[in-house]
Amino acid sequence: MAAGKNFFRSGSMGPWITTADEIADPAALEVICRVNGEERQRASASEMIFSVAEIISYMSRVMPLEPGDVIATGSPEGTGGSHDPPRWLVAGDEISFEVPGIGVLQNRVIDE
After folding, report:
1. Which of 19-39 are b and which e, b meaning 16 or more Cβ less than 10 Å from the residue's Cβ?
2. How far apart are CA 48 and CA 27, in angstroms?
């Protein structure tokens, strides 16, 4: 078992959130993750196993959803453990996560 995205203070978001009315086609959104400028992940929401609409529909059946709620999903291929050998993040690495047309979130990895 691995903590993945669930380490204390590791769930970065922002610096803003875009509302659904700003996105014409959620399936057309692309995510790009870079580590120290090297692209490690790139995928379109259209490649997700379940569509954004299916995820929202399911979640709304198991819990009340309120304006501002964020639903975190999995990661596209390219995470550190999927490399051979694995390429784990280390203190000092700079991570950027981009959704073209929306923005870039950039953080530096620190020691625990």
Report:
1. eeeebeeeeebbbbbbbeeee
2. 9
Residue with tokens 């992940």: 41
CA–CA gap between residue 21 and residue 75 (Å, rounded): 24
| Closest-CA residue to 99 (of 36, 46, 28, 19) | 28
Dist CA 42 CA 31 (whole Å): 6
Q: Over the stretch 4-20, which tens digit does the pLDDT of each residue have?
A: 656 666 677 777 788 88
The Cα 1–Cα 11 span in angstroms is 18
Q: Checking DSSP bridges between strand 103-108 and strand 38-44, what pairing results, if any?
A: unpaired
Contact present, 33 and 40 (Cβ < 8 Å): yes
pTM (two decimals): 0.80
Residue pair 38/91 in contact (Cβ under 8 Å)? The answer is no
